[in-house]
Amino acid sequence: MKAVLNTFACIVLFLHSSFCVTSVPSKDYFDEELLLKPLPSGHIYAYFQFTTVWDVEFEVTSFHHCHLFPRALGEIVGHYNVQELHISLTGGLWRHETWGYPVHDAAPGAELWAWFKESTTSIDKTWKELAGALSGLLCASLNFIDSSNSLSPEFTFRPTGIVSSPAANSSYLRYATLPREIVCTENLTPWKKLLPCDAKKGLSTLLNAGHIHNTNYHSLGLHLRPVCRDVGCSQMSVELRQTVSLVYDMVILGNGNQDWSIKKLFGIGLSGACPLATMSNIYIDTTLNETGAHFQLSPTPPAIITSTRGGYESKFAVYDVKALDIDGMFNIAAFYSSSRVYGVNLPPVLYTNRYIIGYGQERGGIVTKLHNGHWKALDVVYLENIPWFMPLYLHTLKILANGQEIKPLILMDMTLTGQTINSYAYDGMLKELRKHFKPVRPHKNPAEMLLQHDKATHKFEDSGSHHKIWVDGVNPSTLQPQSSTFRSPLVSSRQGCYMQHKVSD
Amino acid sequence: MVKQPESTYSRLGGMQFIEGWFSFLWWISGQWFLLSAQIDANRIFAAVAYVVVLIVIGLPLWWKTTEVYRVSLPYSRIAALDNLDVTQGMNISISTLDTARGDKLVADLNDIFKTSKWFQLTFFALSLEKKYLASVHSLEDLENAPFQPRKVGELLLLEVPGLARFTANHVLVGLKRTVYFSSETTAVKLSEVLESWLLQEKSLRQTVAAMTAPTETDQDQSGRRRMPAAEEYDIMITVVNPEPEKLQLNWDLPKAVQVYLEPLLHELSPVARYTVKSQWLYFVTLNVQPKLVADSSGYGRKHYALAEDILPQIITPLEKKLASHVSRNPCLNFVVYVPPCEAAPLHIYRRQGVRVKGGVDAFLSPRWGGIVIHNPSSLICHNTSVQPKEYSPDTVAVMGVFLAQFRLLMGIPELEEISRADRLPLSVVSLGDWELDSLLRVRTMEQLTSARLTLQSLSQLLSEISNIVINDAVGDSVYRAVDCVERAAKLLKIGQLDRAFNDSKEAFLSAEAAFTDPSLLALLYFPDDQKYAVYIPLFLPVMIPVILSLKNIYAWFSGRINSKSKLKED
């Protein structure tokens, strides 16, 4: 023991003589935001966004020394050479027709897509290992993702972060969904552990599993991408966005009237902002106050901002949690003047419906209806991921618009293996069918797409003839804001906007 | 899960029916043949053809195709590893002013160490030029002299006349591979220093014994602390700040790591590779309640005490945040806990009720890492004007503790007290060369023993269960491991410590790779009794008439031979 202290003393003496400089480590920032938006159908849309921006170059060694950025995720991202990563775990279906567009759209179940760096070798193997590591991180069964149910879509996805060259090579992209995946507390807890304040302080204390999962739609998201540090884009930063999207049904939660409050939605008030956060805001969308059900906010909002986007004007009441002097629990409540009022529903520009037609167990068809509410025609890129046990007949594809049949501009269909569609010597091999095309869409009437398939060739142990079949959602996407926080795009308006939404049946 | 050939059971019924029908036909025709006076030669040849196809060709073919693919392993060589000679040869040179004294020292030391089972020490006298010792002003001059042994594993015992002017001790161990001793030192004192500080024979013996007979012997203290042998280690440095709104830490952790840890890691690079990572944890509490103790000094005349027994409970809430999802290397965790001013100063109390000496509140968890409790200075805490308070931790103090803990965790042993013997203080380097040598020695023995035990248990397993597939990769690993073990033992004997260590590491890794290969788990073919149960109903109905017809064939041929000889006689 004495020898240890002697050694230690010697080391201390030696070190003291050499160390004299202090330098500033890389800076990182953390912001937290909450958006509450009453929807015309009587639902409440709650959207949390936790953003960590780290001013560091996107290298493997950068993630060895983390501060606010979660080290567990940084190690995975660095080790597997990931350029951009998007994960979402969703329960429920987003009703675009009645609810409008969410901030981040997500397909039901688990959805994972990643852009790998140009220097990555053997992308399929890395993709499988990445899915395995993420399934351990988030306690989700993402390990079922492998090359048999992953795609490399060419037109649908574009990198949302900085890229080295404008032409994105889709062979570095991998996309997979697991529509059967269930989201629960088991996923919420490790997701919350990735936050710097770890559900102990700030807006993340509102994420209580009992209330979060008592919703019509709940979705956890993790989005990582490189961004520009400044306007001139001379240096890179790493941005991580953790999002929670919730849609509450006030008929279930309310006691007969439409009043809502933070305590009612989340079970607990807010005790303060996260001390590590630079910005901590709550936005309440008060646009419907003029047109639909009128409500009064209590306490009165300190600031109201107006945002014009795509021709629509929205008003937001902003509460800056850091500036508030909170004593005890802070609660925002909305009191409605009448008991139950439903607003007039204006469907959004593009929304989709899917349904199955046909009768009997032998064959059937899938119809996808795309509704265009815009005043001019829209181009649509359509992506569909069909599992191997649903044999589709591509020659029966019929696209009707305005009563006339139209032909797609580009139809790309790929089968991973060389087998024909009707074969069922599977033994573990899967096939996918992907269609990308660009029809010119006229407006007013919905366009229909019809595809026929066989039902009788399902193998018993794979799906069961009376078992519900899970087919992945489709991805119609019809142009991207550069800012990280929710607040900045509110005050800008641009001509075109890239939008992607996911539908399932 | 046993995987069976698909065709077997599905075609079993059909085959049996066909074979049964066929055997019936054969019997009918056999009866007809017996009734007829003459047996047609063609029929006999047809029977012979059946015998040839089924028994001569078919049976060996079936045996070969239902065989399990097994690469032949060197079972005898692996069994012979039990008697492997792993004594370490070492050349120790002694240099004295007086040759007679030198020879006597050599003879005495040879005598003392001839009973050593693990070492084969060869002492010999070395004569140095007088000029080196004449104009020496400090021991550091001697350290930089050219006669210092450079080969890994060697030692030099150097008599320095007038050692008393530098130190009061009789024996002083240098930073490289030299031990300086004064003119009054006896061989016994020298052997004591060699035995307990430099050679560490007891530690070696206990390490090997603990591995070969774990129920009888346990590791010694330094062995219990030492991280298990691996090719690469992860080092994770964590700063825990439970209340960042009250206390803000300004600390450039990556820079501190680079300045302090990198030199030691570089010196330890022959042993293993290291990856250093760091993170900050907020809002993580100790989960234990320290006791309030009033005293005269400290901030506000009180401090908080953490008893030694509750220290293990501090590690548990931290474990959640320390795991890595990508790396499988053993991880050394170093944690700095900075309590806020309201809970400071926090001190550790030993079991006897006294505070830890030396002003450093830190503790080590064997094979896991170490935790330092770094209290913010009283100056910062008494300054109530600024909120949150800003504090820059004392990097030197914290990193010094981490370095000392890291040395212990890697297996660099603590030195016991020997009277009138000491070591030179570390100034320019963090690790003495002889310390690295003794670490290499103990790791070599550990890795060799582990490789030998793994190979022996693997060979026992594979020879007992005859239908585990041994593929080429596993076979290569086993051969490589056996070769490396034998080569390492030979190199150890002749004193090539660094090459022996590399070979022993290669042997250890190959043996582990072979043992934990997932292909060994797949029992692809089913056990013998099931194999026979599948094939006997298939072949037996065919074989019975064929075997019975052998009798007829033999009778016919012998009849022909007899008739031919009869004809000849006639």
UniProtKB/TrEMBL annotation, chain A:
Signal peptide location: 1-20
One GO process term, biological-process aspect: attachment of GPI anchor to protein
One Pfam family, short name: Gpi16
Keyword annotations of the record: Signal
Keyword DNA damage: no
Coiled-coil ranges from the UniProt annotation: none
GO CC field: GPI-anchor transamidase complex
Listed InterPro entries: PIG-T
Name of the protein in its database record: GPI transamidase component PIG-T
TrEMBL record, chain B:
Keywords, ordered alphabetically: Endoplasmic reticulum, Glycoprotein, GPI-anchor biosynthesis, Membrane, Transmembrane, Transmembrane helix
Organism: Coptotermes formosanus (Formosan subterranean termite)
Pfam families referenced in this protein's UniProt entry, alphabetically: PIG-S
Location within or outside the cell: Endoplasmic reticulum membrane
GO annotation, biological process: attachment of GPI anchor to protein; GPI anchor biosynthetic process
One CC-aspect GO term: GPI-anchor transamidase complex
Pathways involved: Glycolipid biosynthesis; glycosylphosphatidylinositol-anchor biosynthesis
Main location: endoplasmic reticulum
Keyword check for Cell division: no
Name of the protein this chain belongs to: GPI transamidase component PIG-S
Family recorded in the similarity comment: Belongs to the PIGS family.
Membrane-spanning residues: 20-37, 44-63, 532-557
